[in-house]
Hints:
With 278 residues, the protein is of the alpha/beta class. It has three domains: 5-116, 3-Layer(aba) Sandwich (Cobalt-precorrin-4 Transmethylase, domain 1), CATH 3.40.1010.10; 119-223, Methyltransferase, Cobalt-precorrin-4 Transmethylase, Domain 2, CATH 3.30.950; 232-276, no CATH class. 41% of the residues lie in helices and 18% in strands. It contains eleven helices and ten strands. A five-stranded parallel β-sheet has the order 3-2-4-1-5, with helices on both faces. A five-stranded mixed β-sheet has the order 6-7-10-8-9. Strand 6 (133-138), helix 6 and strand 7 form a beta-alpha-beta unit. Helix 3 (64-76) packs across helix 4 (97-105). The longest helix has 13 residues, at 64-76. It is elongated, with a radius of gyration of 25 Å. The protein starts with a strand and ends with a helix. The model has no long low-confidence stretch (mean pLDDT 95). This is Ribosomal RNA small subunit methyltransferase I. Belongs to the methyltransferase superfamily. RsmI family. One of its GO terms (molecular function) is rRNA (cytosine-2'-O-)-methyltransferase activity. Its main location: cytoplasm.
Amino acid sequence: MTAGRLLIGATPLGQPSDASTRLVRALGSADVIAAEDTRRVRVLAQALEVRLAGRVVSVFDQNEASRVPALLDDIRAGATVLLVSDAGMPMISDPGYRLVTACVEAQLPVQCLPGPSAVTTALAVAGLPADRFCFEGFAPRKQSARKTWLAGLAAEQRTCVFFESPRRLGDCLRDAVDVLGPDRRAAVCRELTKTHEEVVRGTLAELADWAADGVLGEISVVLAGVIPSADPESLVEEVNRLVGAGMRVKDACAQVVEATAGAPSKRELYDAVLRSRG
């Protein structure tokens, strides 16, 4: 018997031609295609000129748990099950978590066909630091929960990516201004890879004004991390400690600045040390 497996396939965000060669092969050869929307996967296959030879079943948030047992049985029987969402990578704010974890717990093979992701695509075009980032899924719907969630990002130093409904984007950005301040940098990415793709960059206040009259399309928001601000008094104390141990003031200032995120320039710290001595 051929060993079964679960394949996780990333699908195009908007342009069918962004589909990988491996995804095209998998669509045409998988025994079962577990799709978030069966209609959309058929439209994709038609655009790619692929005939879906396998059985197509729906797997979305409301029915995923009930679908898992039968799909595990298919894999145990030797079937290749291809999991796809409407766009991007399954499980990233899309169905698939229950199926993947069930396969892992059952020690069934799980493999991934990498490809498009709205998260990394938005991060790439936002023009904000991308060396460290976090993904927050969809912003909470209700204002009280959304403001609590935003407060949790107030001290986040990493760039943050999240999704938002176009209907709630204006409210979300206004809440972000209230909680995070008007000057935090961000980018709103709309309809990524599609015909009407748009990336609007600016401060939260500027973006809130831009979105006030309404926005259409799929939305990804990229929020800059907070820039830490070091306490000058503690830095002066650290410099004086190093000087007391035998280091020159200039060298001590350079060492403290290099080791401290959000520190002032070496000249500014040097001047602060001199002022502290009267």
